[in-house]
Every structure is written in C-alpha cells, then in structure tokens.
Amino acid sequence: MSHIDLRHITKRFGSFTAIENVDFRAEKGRIHALVGENGAGKTTLMRVLFGALQPDEGEVHIGGEAVRLQSSSDAIARGIGMVNQHDSVIPALPAWRNLILGAEDGPWLNQAAVIERAEALAKPLGFEFDWTAPASTMSPGATQKLEILKLLWRNAETMILDEPTAMLSPADAEGLYRTLRQLAEGGKTIIVVTHRLPEVLEGCDEVTVLRGGKLIESRPVAGLTAPQLAEAIVGRSVEAPELTPPNLGEESLVVENLTLGHSLRDVSFSLRAGELVGLAGVDGNGQRELLRSIMGVLRPDRGTIRLQGLNVTKASTRARLGAGLRLIAEDRYQEAMIASWPLVENAALGQHLRPPFARNGRRDLSATRVAAQAMAERFRTKFVSLDQPIGGLSGGNQQRFIAGRALADGGGVVLAFQPARGLDLAGIDDVYGALRAHTRAGGCALVVSFDLDELLAHCDRIITISHGELRVPAPEQARDREAIGRMMLGEEA
Predict the structure, then answer these.
(1) What is the three-class DSSP state of 340?
(2) How many whole angstroms separate alpha carbon 493 and alpha carbon 490?
(3) What is the pLDDT of residues 194-216, one digit of tens each?
(4) Rounded-to-integer distance, Cα 166 and Cα 86, Å
(5) Cα(307)–Cα(246) distance, integer angstroms
(6) Which tens digit of pLDDT belongs to each residue from 35-54?
(7) pTM for this one?
(8) How far, in Å, are 252, 280, 355, 375, 381 from residue 370 at the CA level?
(9) CA 26, CA 151: separation in Å to the nearest integer?
C-alpha cells in the first residue's frame, strides 16, 4: 500500500483545467520524482497534496486513509511538508528565527539550543549559515537551503521539494540527495519536483511524468534512459544541441584586475564577439559581485571594465545599458520585474526613455505593446493579457518573459545569471538557443549557472570562479566535468 495515494485528481481554475484525472502514488522509503514541462500541472498536484488547493474531483489517501485536507495546516498536522520554488523567508529576521517560524515550542525561545540543533541538521548537507545575521544578507541559494532545512526541523514524514536544487552547486545538490537517501532509508516519503533529468536518473527510485495536466506514465527509474525520459516529458524526441565552433570577432567586454573587497581578487577575462561563455562556481564565490560590478551597481576597489571599446569603469548603469549591455538577473523578483505591474510596463523596465518605448523623450505606448508582445512570444510565455500583472504568471513564464526582454534588441553583451532557472527542457533549449543565436549574430554572452552540466551542454567555453579568483581550464580540460568541478572548489584540476 502506498503511503501517499492521490486518486483521479482534477483541478480547474475557471474554464482552465490544470490537472485532469491524475493518479499519483508514493511509498515510504522511496524518492519519487515528479517531472513535466512548465504548466504540466506538477506544482498544482503537489499543492493539492499539501492542502493549499482543494481538488474539484478525486480523493487524497494518506497511509491508506481517505482524508480531506482543508488547508496546509491540515497537511502539516499529518506530517506533510513542502518547499516551494520561491522562498518564504522574512528578510528582517535572522536565519535561526526563519528556520523555526511557525514551529516554535512556546513563547520562550532558546536561541542557543535552536542553533545547536540547526547546525546538526545543516552539517550533513554541507550547508553553512550565519544563524544570527538577517536573512536579507543571504543569497537566493542560501535561502533555498534554509527552506529545505525547515522540513527536517518539522520532522515531516512526507517531504515535497519543488525544484530544490535550482540554486545549488553540483556538490550541494549531491549532498542534498545523499541526505534525502538517508531520510528515505529512515522511512520517510520523499517527493521531488525537478526538471534536472540526471537527478531523476541518479537520485530517485520512481518517476511520474505529467504533460498538459494529464498523467503520461509512472514507473521505476531503473532501466530508464535520459532520452526516453525527455521524450516522455516533451512528447517528441529531444536532441542534444550541436556545439559548432564560434567565429570570433573583436573583444566586446574586457575586465582587467577587478578587485572588490574579499569578493573579487584581480579578476581578468574578456569576451569576444561570437562566443557564449559559461562561468562555473559554487554559489557565493563572487559571481554576483562580478556581474553587479560589470553592470555598474557595485563600484570595485580597483580594475578596469571596457565595453565595446569604451572604458565604462566609472559609468552609470544607464550609460552601460545605452552602450549595449543587457542583463538576465538572478533574482527576478528583486532585480528584474515589478510584480504588481502589467507585462507591458515590465517590458520597458530600464529602457523606458529609449526607442521603441519612447520617441522624442515621450513614451510610445503603442510601440511598447508591440515590443512586449514580441518579448512574450519569443519564448512562448503563457499569459492571458499584456495588461495582467507579471506577478500572476508562473515562475517559469516570468523567466521566459524576462529572458525575451534581455534579448529583444540585439544588445551586444548579455550577462545572464541562472537564465534557465525554473524552466523545463523546452524552455532551457529555447533560452540557450536564443543566447547562441545572439552570439552567432555578432553579440556575446556570459552565463552564470550553478548547473555545470547545463553549461557544458550549451556554452562554447567555461571559466571558473572560486573564492573570488578566476581560473581558466587548460585546453585539454576545457570539457572535463571532473576537472572543472575541482576548480570550482578551488582545488587543482
């Protein structure tokens, strides 16, 4: 008997059917993957299990008992915990308070005891926190790790993790799955929603595939290949991208001896027209500081930045945008969109005084709508109206729109931080395909991703950063996953 048994679940939102007649079963002691494209119904199904949504049809059974989960509190009371794609930390509270928020034993909190237990939970994962620092100082990757620890703190018997490794390095992801395996062997039911197929094949026991809100198949992972799984998800054969050598042009971005406190140490590199370069590193090793320095958000202590031949070291962000610099930001909520604004207004962010969004210093609303429509269509963003708030879109569709905006006008140099975060297989191929087309048309791009396999699959070359120092693999190690992984950790290749 399955510990979790969802039977014939259907959930509608108005006239839209998100999931239809879906069965899902997960057993104690097993890691069960739930996969599918954006909009396939994965998160909706898990929110039904977590009590956040009520099914229009079907039944939820836990431990062989039919239950009605009226709220997430009901689910938590029955030992079900869920980590969502988007963190729920409160920035003003320290990490230890966020960890226990809603699970306090009483009005009196023993900080030392909480931190002692928190360290015991975090250490096997290799996670490190400044427990007393405000959560606002934590990176997105660190907040995701904290969300994962919340389930361990609450002793959840059924653990639902929605894209848990989206912001983790390969080493952290491997550590997470080792811990999940230990938890499963201890009798817990683990459900992982993910788009990373290697994680499914290497770390999970069972897999369920949804497509278009319907169940495609549910089967053991043993004997399953990546092409077979990709075809089940997409509905067609998926081919790996063919990396043809770039035709290199002049240097478009040159960074020399960039130093910023302890975050960046004499960083030097260049991008030439025509190339797509991946920056690999463990989260928190200087990637953010590097991109923010190039964008003009941070002022380095010393060093030089040249963009399209211009020295922009002291130039404003606005001037750099005018010189052709574009950004796909890491944190779309804080850096790339205003959630309450409609898509049409978000389309012009950072460029609202330039064509096509303005003419002779005045906003051109008609041209803005045309541009916004093109941005949305470029990566098949699913939306109802250009006038709907962008915050109402799914995370994957927000990412599609933001990527489409960055690549809309052929700006020369694109900085992309986790550009495929939260996207499905088709979305990942779309975004990297567009970045490649941009570079082959004479632009260039620097991509930061914590998914080394993603960079190896799509980039012309890879450089690494560790403790703020940049390193370039030797030619014979340029595609060597293990050697590059060691360099990411600051070790000799």
Answers:
(1) coil
(2) 9
(3) 988 889 999 999 999 999 999 99
(4) 10
(5) 20
(6) 998 778 998 999 999 999 99
(7) 0.74
(8) 29, 36, 12, 9, 15
(9) 18
